C-alpha cells in the first residue's frame, strides 16, 4: 500500500515506469508496464525478479533469442469470434508471424532445458498447436499475399486473367502501332484512365478510331481513347477480377472459420507474448542502469551496498559524470535513520534512493545495487516529500504535513517503510521541533522502518539517546566548502549554514550579527559537529589507506606462500632427480671397479698391465664427474647507454634491459622484475654478445618465467558454458604441468549452473584432482571453488 496517492510521482517511480515502457515492442507490453504495482508477497516478487534476471543474462550473453516481430493477437481473436466475419490477408499474416515468434522462443528454451527455469514457467502449460501455421500457409505466401493456387477456382480465374491480359496487350499494341504510323497519336505512350488502358489520340483524329473516350487533356487537344476491339476484352477481364475478389473472400472466410476453434489457444499465445515483451523491457532497462538482483529476504529490512539512484545515474551518464554510491541499512536495531547535514548535500537524494529502489524491487524490477545487498518486503510505503498545500482544501504547507503525520501514526506497522523529507518544517521551529520529536517517538514505538531528513537539533539529540534511532550525516569538505555526497552513519551532521553563507559572499556584518543572535550554546554545538566531522573524515581516510596497505601486504604474503609452495614442490623433484642420477653414477662406477679388479686378477698383478687398467678406471670415473658450468665471459661497451641496451649490474652477475632513462636513474627489466638503478652502477654489454646472452637467459629461465607468469586463480564469471570449459582445460593443463598443489576458480553464484559444469568436468577428465571445496562464506562461498591436486 502506498500513501499518499502521489507517492510514486514524488519518489520518481513514474519516470522509471516510462523508461521501462519505452523498451516495449508492443502496446500489450506497455499496458502491462502501466499496470505494475507494488507487491507484498515474497514468492511473487522473487518470481518476477528471477524472470528479469534470466532474461538479462540472455541479452548479456548474446544468446540467439529473436523477439522482434509480433502483434496484438487478442484484437484479431476477438474479430474471429464473430460468425461470418473474416480476417484479411494482412491480419492473417500478423497471426502467422506472431506464432512463428512464439514457437521460435519455445524452441530456444527447449534447447536449454533448466537453464532459465523462471522463464520456462511462462509457457509451462502452453499448448503447441502448429496446425494453425499450416492452415495459414496453405493460403498465404511468404510475403503474406494470397497464393494463386489457394483453391482450384482461384487458380482457374488467375490463369484466365493472365491470358486475357496478354490478349488485351497484344491487341492494344497492334492498334497503337497502326495509329502511330498514321500520325494520329499525341506525344506520350499508352496510359491508364479509369482503370482502362487508353491511347492518347489528337482531338482532330478521334473519329478515325472506333472506341470509348475516357478522358481528355486540360487543353482539349488530346483525348484518351479505349479502342472498340479492346473494350469487350477489358470488360471480360473486369468480370474476372470481380470473380477473383469474391473467391479470395470465400477463401479468407473459410480459413477464418477453420481458425475459430483455436481462439483460446490464440489468446494463450497472446498472453505469453505480452509477458515476454514485458520481461524483455525490464531486462533492457536493468542493463541500462547496471541493475542486479539483491538477496531477497522476507523480513522488513534493508542493507544497500553501493546503491545508486537510477534516474540520477542516467542523468549523470549523459554528462559523463559518476554517482557517489550509497551504503545504508535498516534493521531491528537500526529502524529509523535520521539524516542531517548541509543543504544540497544529498540528504533528500539519499532518502529518495532508499524509497525508489524499494518500490522498484517490489514491482519486480532489478535495482542498481551490489548483488550482495539485502532487501526485504514492506507491506506499506509512506512518504512525505515536497509541498502539498491546497487552496481548494484550505490546507497550508504545515497542515498538509500534519495530515500525513496523523495518517502515519494511525496506520503504521513494523512492516511499514516511512520516508520524510525536512521533518518538522513549515511552522515556527520552536513548536515544529517538539511536534516532530513527539511524532518520531510514537513511530519508533510502533517499530516502523524509515529514513528521515532534518535540520532540527532536538531531533538529532533525541535520535542519539533513543534505541532504534540512528543519526547519520552527509559528509562535507569544509576546507573546499563542497559536499562529498557520502552518507556517514553514527553521528549527526552540521548544516554548515554560516560556512555556506560565507562561501557565497554574504556580508561579514550580517554573518557577525547572525552569530550573536543564534546564541553561544548553539554556536558551540555547531562548531563541535563541524570538528567531529573533520576528524571523522580524517579517520576514514586513514582507515582507507591502512586497508589498501593491508591488501597489498596480503597479496605479497599470498604470492610468497605460492612461491614457497612451488619451491618446496620443485625442491622435492630436484632432490629426487639428483638421487636417481647419483644412483646411476654409483652403479656405473661399481661396475667399472669390479671389471678393473677382475682384469687385475686375470693379468696376475702384472705391473704395466695394472697401470694401464688403473688409467682406464680414472678416465671412466672422470666421465661421470659433474663439472660446474663455466661462467660466460661478458664483453662490455663504453659507448653511451640508450633505451633497449643490455647492461650488467656492477659487482653481480645480474643482467637486464634498459626500459627508461630519467637523468641518472635507469628503469631496468631484470626478467619480470622492474627496478630503478643509478647509471654509475651498471656497465653496458656489447651488441655482439647480446644475442647469446638473451638466448642463454631465455633458455635457463623458461621454467621460472612460466611459473612467475602463472596465477593460481582463474576467473570464469560471465562466460558461456563452452567457452568457460575451454578456458578451464587450457588452464588446468598448465597447472598440472607446473605442479601447482592447489588453484582457485571464480565462477560466481548465479543459479549454480557454471559451478556444476566446472566441477563435473574436473571430476570426469582430471584424475590429478584430489578434492574440491567452496570458499569461506565471508569471502565468496559457493561462488568460488578451490581445487586441490593429488
Automatic annotation (TrEMBL):
Protein name: Endonuclease MutS2
Keywords: ATP-binding, Coiled coil, DNA-binding, Endonuclease, Hydrolase, Nuclease, Nucleotide-binding, RNA-binding, rRNA-binding
One record GO biological process: rescue of stalled ribosome
Biological function: Endonuclease that is involved in the suppression of homologous recombination and thus may have a key role in the control of bacterial genetic diversity.
EC number: 3.1.-.-, 3.6.4.-
EC supergroup of this enzyme: hydrolase
Chain segments annotated as coiled-coil in the UniProt record: 525-606
Subunit text: Homodimer. Binds to stalled ribosomes, contacting rRNA.
Every Smr domain range: 714-790
Pfam families: MutS_V, Smr
Keyword Transcription regulation: no
Species assigned in the record: Pedobacter chitinilyticus
PANTHER family recorded: OS10G0509000 PROTEIN, OS10G0509000 PROTEIN-RELATED
Alphabetized SMART domains for the sequence: MUTSac, MUTSd, SMR
Gene Ontology MF, one: ATP-dependent DNA damage sensor activity
Family as reported in the entry's similarity comment: Belongs to the DNA mismatch repair MutS family. MutS2 subfamily.
Highest taxon in the source lineage: Bacteria
Protein's gene: mutS2
Amino acid at each position: 500500500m502506498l500513501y499518499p496517492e502521489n507517492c510514486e510521482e514524488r519518489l520518481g517511480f513514474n519516470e522509471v515506469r516510462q523508461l521501462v515502457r519505452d523498451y516495449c515492442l508492443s502496446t500489450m507490453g506497455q499496458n502491462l508496464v502501466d499496470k505494475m504495482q507494488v507487491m507484498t508477497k515474497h514468492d511473487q516478487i522473487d518470481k518476477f525478479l528471477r524472470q528479469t534476471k534470466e532474461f538479462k543474462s540472455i541479452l548479456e550473453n548474446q544468446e540467439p533469442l529473436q523477439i522482434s516481430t509480433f502483434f496484438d493477437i487478442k484484437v484479431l481473436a476477438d474479430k474471429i469470434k464473430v460468425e461470418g466475419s473474416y480476417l484479411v490477408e494482412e491480419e492473417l499474416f500478423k497471426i502467422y508471424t506472431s506464432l512463428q515468434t512464439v514457437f521460435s522462443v519455445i524452441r530456444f528454451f527447449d534447447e536449454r532445458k533448466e537453464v532459465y527455469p523462471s522463464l520456462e514457467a511462462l509457457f509451462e502449460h502452453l499448448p503447441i498447436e502448429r496446425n494453425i501455421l499450416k492452415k495459414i500457409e496453405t493460403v498465404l505466401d511468404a510475403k503474406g499475399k494470397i497464393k494463386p493456387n489457394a483453391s482450384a477456382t482461384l487458380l482457374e480465374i488467375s490463369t484466365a486473367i493472365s491470358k486475357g491480359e496478354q490478349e488485351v496487350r497484344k491487341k492494344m499494341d497492334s492498334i497503337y502501332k497502326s495509329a502511330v504510323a498514321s500520325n494520329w497519336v499525341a506525344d506520350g505512350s499508352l496510359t491508364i484512365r479509369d482503370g482502362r488502358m487508353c491511347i492518347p489520340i489528337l482531338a482532330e483524329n478521334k473519329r478515325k478510331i472506333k472506341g470509348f473516350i475516357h478522358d481528355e487533356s486540360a487543353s482539349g487537344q488530346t483525348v484518351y481513347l479505349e479502342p472498340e476491339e479492346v473494350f469487350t476484352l477489358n470488360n471480360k477481364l473486369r468480370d474476372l477480377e470481380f470473380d477473383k475478389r469474391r473467391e479470395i473472400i470465400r477463401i479468407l472466410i473459410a480459413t477464418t472459420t477453420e481458425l475459430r476453434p483455436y481462439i483460446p489457444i490464440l489468446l494463450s499465445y497472446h498472453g505469453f507474448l505480452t509477458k515476454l515483451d514485458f520481461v524483455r523491457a525490464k531486462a533492457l532497462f536493468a542493463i541500462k542502469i547496471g541493475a542486479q538482483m539483491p538477496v531477497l529476504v522476507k523480513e522488513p529490512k534493508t542493507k544497500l551496498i553501493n546503491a545508486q539512484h537510477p534516474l540520477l545515474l542516467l542523468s549523470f551518464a549523459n554528462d559523463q559524470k559518476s554517482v557517489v554510491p550509497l551504503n545504508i541499512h535498516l534493521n531491528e536495531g537500526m529502524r529509523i535513520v535520521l539524516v542531517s547535514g548541509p543543504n544540497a548535500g544529498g540528504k533528500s537524494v539519499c532518502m529518495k534512493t532508499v524509497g525508489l529502489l524499494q518500490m522498484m524491487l517490489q514491482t519486480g524490477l532489478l535495482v542498481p545495487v551490489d548483488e550482495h545487498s539485502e532487501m526485504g518486503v514492506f507491506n506499506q510505503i509512506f512518504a512525505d516529500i515536497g509541498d502539498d498545500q491546497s487552496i481548494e482544501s484550505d490546507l497550508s504547507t504545515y497542515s498538509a504535513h500534519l495530515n500525513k503525520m496523523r495518517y502515519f501514526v494511525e496506520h503504521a506497522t513494523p512492516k511499514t517503510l516511512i520516508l520524510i523529507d525536512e521533518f518538522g518544517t513549515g511552522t515556527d521551529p520552536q513548536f515544529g521541533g517538539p511536534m516532530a520529536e513527539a511524532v518520531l517517538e510514537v513511530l519508533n514505538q510502533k517499530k516502523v522502518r524509515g529514513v528521515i531528513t532534518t535540520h532540527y537539533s532536538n531531533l538529532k539529540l533525541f535520535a542519539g539517546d533513543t534505541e532504534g534511532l540512528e543519526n547519520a550525516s552527509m559528509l562535507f569538505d569544509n576546507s573546499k566548502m563542497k559536499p562529498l555526497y557520502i552518507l556517514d552513519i553514527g553521528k549527526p551532521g552540521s548544516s554548515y549554514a554560516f560556512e555556506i553563507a560565507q562561501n557565497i559572499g554574504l556580508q561579514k556584518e550580517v554573518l557577525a550579527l547572525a552569530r550573536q543572535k543564534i546564541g553561544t550554546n548553539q554556536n558551540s554545538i555547531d562548531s563541535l559537529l563541524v570538528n567531529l566531522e573533520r576528524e571523522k573524515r580524517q579517520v576514514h581516510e586513514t582507515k582507507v589507506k591502512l586497508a589498501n596497505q593491508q591488501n597489498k601486504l596480503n597479496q605479497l604474503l599470498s604470492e610468497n606462500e605460492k612461491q614457497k609452495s612451488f619451491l618446496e614442490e620443485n625442491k622435492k623433484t630436484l632432490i629426487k632427480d639428483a638421487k636417481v642420477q647419483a644412483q646411476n653414477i654409483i652403479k656405473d662406477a661399481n661396475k667399472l671397479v669390479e671389471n678393473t679388479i677382475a682384469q687385475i686378477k686375470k693379468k696376475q698383478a702384472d705391473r704395466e698391465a695394472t697401470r694401464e687398467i688403473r688409467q682406464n678406471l680414472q678416465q671412466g670415473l672422470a666421465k661421470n664427474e659433474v663439472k660446474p658450468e663455466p661462467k660466460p665471459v661478458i664483453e662490455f661497451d663504453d659507448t653511451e647507454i640508450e633505451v633497449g641496451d643490455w647492461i650488467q649490474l656492477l659487482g653481480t652477475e645480474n643482467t637486464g634491459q634498459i626500459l627508461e632513462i630519467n637523468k641518472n636513474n635507469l628503469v631496468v627489466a631484470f626478467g619480470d622484475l622492474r627496478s630503478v638503478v643509478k647509471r654509475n652502477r651498471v656497465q653496458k654489454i656489447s651488441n655482439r654478445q647480446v644475442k647469446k646472452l638473451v638466448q642463454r637467459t631465455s633458455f635457463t629461465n623458461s621454467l621460472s618465467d612460466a611459473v612467475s607468469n602463472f596465477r593460481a586463480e582463474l576467473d570464469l564469471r560471465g562466460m558461456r558454458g563452452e567457452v568457460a570449459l575451454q578456458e578451464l582445460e587450457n588452464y588446468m593443463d598448465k597447472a598440472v604441468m607446473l605442479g601447482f598443489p592447489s588453484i582457485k576458480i571464480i565462477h560466481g553464484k548465479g543459479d549454480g549452473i557454471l559451478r556444476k559444469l566446472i566441477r563435473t568436468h574436473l571430476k570426469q577428465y582430471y584424475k590429478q584432482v584430489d578434492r574440491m571445496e567452496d570458499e569461506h562464506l565471508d569471502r565468496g562461498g559457493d561462488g568460488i571453488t578451490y581445487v586441490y591436486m593429488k
